[in-house]
Structures are given as structure tokens and as C-alpha cells.
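A reminder from the course coordinator: this example appears on the midterm review sheet, so study it carefully.

Given structure:
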């Protein structure tokens, strides 16, 4: 099945095609490090995968349009469960088993929102899942589906809903993005064209969780659409030893992968003897899902140069669940980093300068429109002006599940005024701020996270990077900066994780807080209300690893972090 044929296809049709065309070729391989430190590989061919999917689909007591929650651990069972729900005519809801630490509340909220008719899990996870559900919902084990119900289901159409992708909830409660077969497969085509990858030879390698949009599209849907081999591993296995991911990349020449910025930092900091790795054959690693730090990219490229990894293999990208996942990707060249004048950026203009804010270009769209728009007037802005990122294309979701007002507000925007070459609408309002410079998109931050003090805009990730530079023991990517309402204006708080917080004396903690204040004042002209140093793990994150600034603000206001030593 070629890119040209994806326009009229469905995910189920893709599976049927590859099961018939290449039945004995490997479809998905899971490398299991839980019982074997060297990694035990368990795989399914396309024929075997289709058989597993059909068994799950036949066992699900559902009708077309019902929701099926996928609560499987990472692995081939997850793939079979997700595709089985879709093959049964239901709407899949990719989630996670209740054993994932720290996310029980989110799981309960999502299940309440989507109201699944059935749940897919595994035999091993079934007791915990049934205990969490408390009864009332049929549970099917993907590895032992049980007896068949009425099936096969009616053939799906491209405009039918394939699955609900729940947002990570970085600035609001999780919402289920409604994604059709057509939208998802359109995004696959956009990704392949944007990255310039050869779908005939590539292998995808991923540790990203399959319930996350980037992990699902990279690790499951793109290989399914194009007949590629997918090599998966558990996210925990990556956290335990990040070299495992790099080893798998080296084992599969032509492999491509994706990871958030923190993974690049984590690998550069944790991997020993990088020269023994074989990364010269890697096609590309997409860097997306969170703000990209140019210093982290430099460290990663330096650390793995001896292993054959070159900067042009890193492909900065921008995307979001509401657009399936990918919106823009960088060219096959070393990532473009531009320094913008900080004061000009604060007033909404991107002007290159010798010193200031360093931002990484996230490329250009493929097969979709991206506009920078004044969020108050809906007027498209010129290049060099900071505005809200709006997206229009066949990959955009149909709305939020059972949320008509929010859907209209987010997915139904229209431009006003003159906008040559751009459709009037409907547009997806991303809530992200960006600027187009030299033809590429740069991400400035989230509108809801923007810090406004005395009429000047400050981007929280910029303040966070400055705070983290005060001490090597402050964990990069684990700092939250946010505004709180003061007597006359907003004031700013910084909460930063410190690697050895328990060993800090009160005097040392006070001195470090003073240093953070001084650096932020010098760089941004901000007088911080509070600086709080906390142990590792105290800054909340979304399910995709982003800093949850709103949740951190709530904890601060509730007094969960105690009192600052210096005010």
C-alpha cells in the first residue's frame, strides 16, 4: 500500500493488506527487559498480528460506535488490543493499565468521560484493572480473548471515528480528540513527506508509551499504514537504562524514532562509552512533544558523534493531539538555532540578535496550513510577529468527545481580514505561541502559561532555563515558573527540583534561592515573589512528561511546598 492509496483507506484495511501481501514478514517486535536484562524479543508477523486482532475483535461485546478502553501494558498485546477494538467497529481509547504510578486520577477521569462499553487488557493486568473498574464493564484479555461474540463487524469507512486521543492535560482537564481513519492516515502521509523518509526500507524504534499521541503514531499507526516493522520497548526500560533505546536503533539500519527533549538530555547524561554504539545508520530521530533546548541538542550531538550520529539526523518537530500529532518537521539538515532579542520578543516581535533567547526552528508543514494569528482579532500576522499557531488540514481532529462548546471554540476558528493563500476556516486553535522566521516555525510557549508582568510578556520556559543555570544540581527540565495574582499585579514564582535537596543546609538553600533571583532579575527584569527548591519528583508533569505549570501553581497556592526561605 503506497502513500497515494492511504487517502481512501482505513486502519483495518491497512492491516488486511499487509497480512495478505507480506504475511510472513515481521510486523511488530517487543523487546522485553523485565525478565531479561539483555532484552527478550517477542514478535508477530503480519499474518499473526491479523489473527490476534481478529480474535480480540470477535471477543468484544460491542456495537459500532461503542468505546473500548485499552488498558494494556506496553507490548504486542497493546497493539492487538487497540487494533482489535477498531476491527470490532468500536472506537478505541488508548490508555494505560492502572499500575502506572501517579496517573490513577487521570485514568478515572478519562474513563468517566468516554464511558467505555468494554475494556481490553492482559491476563496479568486483569485483576488490577477489574479492581480499578469496580465491575460493570466487560473486560477482555488481549492475550486470551475468550469466546467469540457476533462478528465480523461492518467494514469501516475513512470518515468513521477510529479512536479518541486524550490530551495530556498540561493546561486543562484531559479531553478526547475525535480522530477518524482519514485524519490519521493523512497525518502519516504528511509525516513521511515532511521527513523525507523512504517507507520501503525504514524500521520504527520506539520506547514512547502507546497511549501518547507521538508514541501511538510512531510505534503503531505509521508502521501499520506503510507495512514497516515496528520495534517497541517499555518506557520504564528506557528510564532504567537509556542506552537500550540507542542499542535498538543501532540494531536496525534505516531506523527512525522520536522522543521528547528530556530524552536527549537523559541519554547524553547517562550513557557511558557512547563510542561503542552504532548510530551511523539511524535515519532520523524526531525531537518533539515539549520545548526543544538547543544546549541539550549540542550535548547530545557531541556525546554521540563518535558513534556515527550526526546533527542532521535530529529532526525538530511541532505537533499536538488535536492535529493527530505532527504539524511541522525540520529539513534534513542540522537543527537551525536562532537567537532573538529578549525585549523585542516580549513585545511580540522576533528580531535576531547576538544575545537573547535561543530558539530551535521546528520546520515547515507538509500537506497542511499553519498560520500565526492575533488571538484577539483573528487576523493573520506577518512573518516575524509572535502569534497563536493555527492549523488547517485533513489531519485535524473532528472535535472533542462530547464537548460541543469546547470543540467549536478550538476546532472552528475563522480568520478575519485579508489572508491571501489561506483558507478562511475552519482552523484549529492550538493555544501555542509561535513565530515564522526565515520560513520556519519557532515555538515561543503556551498562551495560558504566558507570564505578563507590568505589561511585558515573559515565556516561562525561558525563565525556567535561567533558573536552572544557577546550579548544576537543579534538574534541567524540572523547573516550573508561573504567575500568581499579587496585590497590584501578577508576580512570579519558581519551583525547582534539586538533585540533592535532602542534603542541602538551610544556609545553602537560602544562598541558591538568592542566586536564582539574581539571575532571573538580570536576564528578564523580573523580581520573583518566591523561589522554592524541592526534592526530585515534586514538580508535576503531564502523562507525556511536560511540566504541568497550572498543577504546580495549584500546589503552591495550597501550601504543598511550604514557605520559601527568601522572599
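Designed residues:
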Amino acid at each position: 500500500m503506497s502513500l497515494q492509496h492511504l487517502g481512501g483507506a482505513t486502519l483495518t484495511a491497512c492491516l488486511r493488506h499487509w497480512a495478505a501481501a507480506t504475511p510472513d514478514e515481521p510486523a511488530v517486535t517487543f523487546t522485553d527487559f523485565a525478565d531479561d536484562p539483555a532484552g527478550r524479543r517477542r514478535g508477530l508477523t503480519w499474518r499473526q498480528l491479523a489473527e490476534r486482532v481478529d480474535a480480540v475483535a470477535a471477543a468484544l461485546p460491542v456495537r459500532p460506535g461503542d468505546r473500548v478502553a485499552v488498558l494494556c501494558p506496553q507490548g504486542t498485546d497493546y497493539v492487538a488490543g487497540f487494533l482489535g477494538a477498531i476491527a470490532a467497529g468500536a472506537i478505541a481509547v488508548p490508555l494505560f493499565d492502572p499500575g502506572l504510578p501517579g496517573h490513577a486520577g487521570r485514568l478515572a477521569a478519562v474513563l468517566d468521560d468516554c464511558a467505555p462499553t468494554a475494556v481490553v487488557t492482559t491476563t496479568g493486568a486483569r485483576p488490577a484493572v477489574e479492581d480499578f473498574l469496580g465491575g460493570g464493564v466487560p473486560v477482555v484479555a488481549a492475550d486470551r480473548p475468550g469466546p467469540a461474540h457476533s462478528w465480523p463487524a461492518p467494514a469501516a469507512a475513512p470518515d468513521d471515528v477510529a479512536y479518541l486521543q486524550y490530551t495530556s492535560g498540561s493546561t486543562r482537564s484531559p479531553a478526547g480528540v475525535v480522530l477518524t481513519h482519514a485524519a490519521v492516515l493523512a497525518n502519516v502521509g504528511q509525516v513521511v513527506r515532511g521527513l523525507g523518509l523512504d517507507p520501503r526500507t525504514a524500521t520504527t524504534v520506539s520506547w514512547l508509551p502507546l497511549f501518547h499521541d507521538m508514541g501511538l503514531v510512531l510505534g503503531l499507526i505509521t508502521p501499520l499504514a506503510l507495512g514497516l516493522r515496528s520495534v517497541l520497548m517499555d518506557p520504564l526500560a528506557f528510564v532504567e537504562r537509556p542506552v537500550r533505546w540507542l542499542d535498538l536503533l543501532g540494531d536496525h539500519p534505516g531506523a527512525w524514532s522520536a522522543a521528547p527533549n528530556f530524552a536527549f538530555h537523559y541519554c547524553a547524561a547517562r550513557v557511558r562509552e557512547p563510542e561503542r554504539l552504532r548510530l551511523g545508520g539511524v535515519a532520523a530521530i524526531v525531537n518533539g512533544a515539549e520545548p526543544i533546548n538547543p544546549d541539550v541538542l549540542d550535548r547530545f550531538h557531541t556525546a554521540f558523534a563518535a558513534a556515527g550520529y550526526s546533527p542532521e539526523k535530529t529532526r525538530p518537530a511541532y505537533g499536538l493531539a488535536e492535529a493527530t500529532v505532527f504539524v511541522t518537521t525540520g529539513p534534513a539538515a542540522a537543527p537551525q538555532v536562532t537567537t532573538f532579542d529578549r525585549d523585542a520578543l516580549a513585545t511580540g516581535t522576533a528580531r535576531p540578535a547576538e544575545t537573547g533567547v535561543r530558539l530551535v526552528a521546528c520546520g515547515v508543514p507538509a500537506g497542511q496550513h499553519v498560520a500565526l494569528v492575533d488571538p484577539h482579532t483573528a487576523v493573520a500576522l506577518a512573518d516575524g510577529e509572535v502569534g497563536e499557531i493555527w492549523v488547517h488540514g485533513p489531519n485535524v481532529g473532528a472535535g472533542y468527545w462530547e464537548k460541543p462548546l469546547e470543540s467549536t471554540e478550538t476546532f472552528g476558528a475563522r480568520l478575519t481580514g485579508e489572508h491571501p493563500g489561506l483558507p478562511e476556516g475552519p482552523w484549529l486553535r492550538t493555544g501555542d505561541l509561535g513565530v515564522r522566521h526565515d520560513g520556519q516555525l519557532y515555538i515561543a510557549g503556551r498562551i495560558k502559561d504566558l507570564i505578563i508582568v507590568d505589561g511585558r510578556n515573559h515565556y516561562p520556559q525561558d525563565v525556567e532555563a535561567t533558573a536552572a543555570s544557577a546550579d548544576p544540581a537543579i534538574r534541567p527540565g524540572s523547573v516550573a515558573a508561573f504567575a500568581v495574582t499579587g496585590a497590584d499585579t501578577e508576580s512570579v514564582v519558581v519551583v525547582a527540583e534539586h538533585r540533592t535537596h535532602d542534603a542541602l543546609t538551610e544556609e545553602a538553600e537560602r544562598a541558591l534561592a538568592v542566586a536564582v533571583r539574581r539571575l532571573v532579575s538580570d536576564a528578564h527584569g523580573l523580581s520573583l515573589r518566591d523561589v522554592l527548591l524541592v526534592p526530585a519528583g515534586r514538580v508535576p508533569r503531564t502523562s507525556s512528561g511536560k511540566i504541568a505549570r497550572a498543577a504546580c501553581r495549584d500546589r503552591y497556592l495550597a501550601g504543598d511546598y511550604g514557605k520559601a526561605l527568601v522572599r
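The mean pLDDT is 91. Residues 384 and 437 are 6 Å apart (CA to CA).
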